[in-house]
């Protein structure tokens, strides 16, 4: 084959954020990112939260380069390098070792540009979407079509779950090489059309301890985490799968809250302890429980990751009322402009009884805004070349 190798190739993908309802916390292998327990998450819709990544390879590039939200970043980061190496390995395997000269050369340097459609400062889990998107764009660039959650996992554990839409399980796997530590879809995003998600973006402050470092200290010191991984999670995972299959919101919501609480209990059981929940988190937790108690059943469910934002699950018919409860409890600091973002929220009038029972001592300005979203699909290919984040010169 005498065909010339392609001089420049480019691929752009988008990928979603996910929120775990059975949490991942703890690795049995820190290099391969193998977890001590399986986890289960809901993929959020990319109309509200997504990462876009363009990967380009060219004969003319002299070094690998990476830009995150327009600023050049370290392409040598071990996790970025692991993803790159693994995608290239799959590409080589696919080409069967032979020199397919029509295919993009694996020795070309690459340029990668990635950006989020949401403020990074808001502390919304961006590494899961980021690595899922990186791996998707690289795979597209090199023509790899294999199952890629195993590769995304090498970027960030939770990223493997962002490789699918809807409801996703990351099974811990048993093998030491991690080949069975994969994500798979439990149910598509269309499975539960009434399910909604409210992200309560709280004001300011970065998280004290990153999840990577935090979970390692937990593995080393928390007996509760060990019990959780060995005994609690296997039971809960089976229960959660059933609640999702049956679209049982009460069961789903209660278990999501309990699992979030147990995750934060393992953080307190870590020595020295780690605190991700704040006074405001506790206010939101209490508010959700008062709201549910007032209605006599579980209408909203909260979950918190390694940061201060609250994620609330509810069914569509509850959203307007609960959003009004949040607005009354945390009155917007300014004129309330853009307090509600994302999917439209209807208006609701609260009864005197509801206000009296649920809204206690308002905290003005504590919640910056509410993002209304829902479950959504997995990574997408962006066909339109005008959407590439890199120009024909390979620069942002
Ligand atoms: C609390 O996936 O960010 O959000 O694998 O070290 O990159 P690394 O950690 P990461 O941890 C996520 C922890 C969590 C729970 C979850 O998403 O399951």
Could you write a compact summary of the structure shown?
One of its GO terms (biological process) is isopentenyl diphosphate biosynthetic process, mevalonate pathway. The chain is of the alpha+beta class and 396 residues long.
What does this 3D model show about the protein?
The model has no long low-confidence stretch (mean pLDDT 94). It contains nine helices and 17 strands. The relative contact order is 0.18. The protein is of the alpha+beta class and 396 residues long. It starts with 7 loop residues before the first strand and ends in a 15-residue tail after the last strand. Bound molecules: ligand DP6. One of its GO terms (cellular component) is cytosol. Keywords: ATP-binding, Cholesterol biosynthesis, Cholesterol metabolism, Lipid biosynthesis, Lipid metabolism, Lyase, Nucleotide-binding, Steroid biosynthesis, Steroid metabolism, Sterol biosynthesis, Sterol metabolism.
Topology, element by element:
Blueprint: E1 8-16, E2 18-22, E3 27-29, E4 34-35, E5 39-43, E6 50-58, E7 65-68, E8 71-73, H1 78-94, E9 109-116, H2 127-142, H3 149-153, E10 167-170, E11 183-187, E12 195-202, H4 211-221, H5 223-245, H6 249-269, H7 279-295, E13 300-303, E14 310-315, H8 316-329, E15 340-342, H9 352-358, E16 367-373, E17 380-381
Parallel strand pairs: 7-9, 15-16
Antiparallel strand pairs: 1-6, 1-17, 2-5, 3-4, 5-10, 6-9, 7-8, 10-11, 12-14, 12-16, 13-14
Keywords: ATP-binding, Cholesterol biosynthesis, Cholesterol metabolism, Lipid biosynthesis, Lipid metabolism, Lyase, Nucleotide-binding, Steroid biosynthesis, Steroid metabolism, Sterol biosynthesis, Sterol metabolism
Pfam families: MDD_C, MVD-like_N
Catalytic activity: (R)-5-diphosphomevalonate + ATP = isopentenyl diphosphate + ADP + phosphate + CO2
